[in-house]
Design a protein that fits this description.
Radius of gyration: 21 Å
Strand content: 5-15%
Number of strands: 9
Shape: globular
Structural class: alpha/beta
Distance between the termini: 16 Å
Order of helices and strands: EHEEHHHEHHEHEHHHHEHEE
């Protein structure tokens, strides 16, 4: 029996948990079943109580106190402990039918899925390489305010591409918190960031003489080039060209206050995991019961 799920990931502060809450609410309004998994051992406040919470297995606070580790080291320890106790996930997810969308909320430390093989190992267990056979996609959130600092935007885009390569599952990349840039960034300009290309860094850079002296043709290791910012300009352009050459990353816009926006993102997730192809036709009068906590009941 097939299962379907989405890994919600991205840098800290990108709005992952808020997106999960809005997605759960949207699914409820459309009478769809979901199963919410929290894999952030430091998370505490939830609008919807998780159906499965890693803190029932291990918490970051306990690890830091008992092991004397910092936040990042403690988080890595928590995930390594989870990988040694994967039955915690298997026993909870195994009974789920194909009607459920499994929403997995990950922490914001991107090194977990770009630098070390912790989340890639977890993905292999969840997907067709493991016993659960979950058709899984990643929803990678990047805060839309990054578009104001284009070098920062390309750094975030590079992290999204790194996650795509490391995890080897379908990705839906999302510019979150669109309400924060409405009115400050023109719509026509904003559309250019949905399919990033290196020319975004060239906009407004008309000072060719300065580039000749301080960056474009200077030795990146030269002191004047470093102090004048030329080295960083060359690095940013190299990163942008790398992203452009691979042409792997494109973004959807997300405003969690807009139901249509959430619906569009969910539609792309459903297409990526081929959710609707596995569903049985449902009668118009079929109803779904909710428990006291507001979550779906079988």
């Amino acid at each position: 029996m097939s299962k379907f799920g989405a890994l919600v990931m991205g840098p800290a502060g990108a709005g992952k948990t808020t997106f999960c809450n809005s997605l759960i609410q949207h699914l409820r309004l459309n009478k769809r079943s979901c199963f919410y998994v929290n894999l952030d051992p430091a998370a505490e406040d939830f609008s919807y109580e998780p159906d499965l919470d890693i803190k029932d297995l291990i918490s970051l606070e306990d690890v830091m106190e008992e092991m004397g580790l910092g936040p990042n080291g403690g988080l890595i320890y928590c995930f390594e402990f989870l990988l040694e106790n994967l039955d915690f996930l298997t026993q909870a997810l195994e009974p789920l039918s194909e009607e459920y969308l499994i929403i997995i909320d990950l922490p914001g430390q991107i090194e977990l899925y770009t630098h070390i093989p912790v989340v890639p190992t977890l993905v292999r267990h969840l997907t067709r390489f493991g016993s659960l056979n979950v058709s899984l996609c990643a929803a990678y959130l990047l805060e839309s305010t990054f578009v104001i600092d284009r070098a920062k935007f390309f750094a975030g885009t590079l992290s999204a591409m790194s996650a795509m390569i490391m995890l080897e599952i379908p990705h839906v990349n999302i510019l979150s918190k669109m309400d924060l840039v409405k009115g400050s960034v023109p719509k026509r300009q904003l559309k250019r960031f949905l399919d990033p290309d290196a020319s975004l860094l060239d906009d407004g850079n008309n000072n060719d003489e300065e580039d000749l002296r301080g960056g474009a043709f200077a030795d990146p290791a030269d002191k004047k080039s470093v102090m004048g910012g030329g080295s960083f300009k060359k690095l940013n352009k190299a990163v942008a060209r790398l992203i452009d050459d691979f042409s792997m990353v494109s973004f959807l816009q997300l405003d969690v206050q807009d139901e249509d926006s959430i619906g569009r993102v969910l539609s792309h997730i459903d297409d990526a995991i081929q959710y609707h192809e596995a569903q049985e036709p449902r009668e118009p009068n079929d109803e779904i019961d909710y428990g006291e906590d507001g979550m779906m009941m079988e």
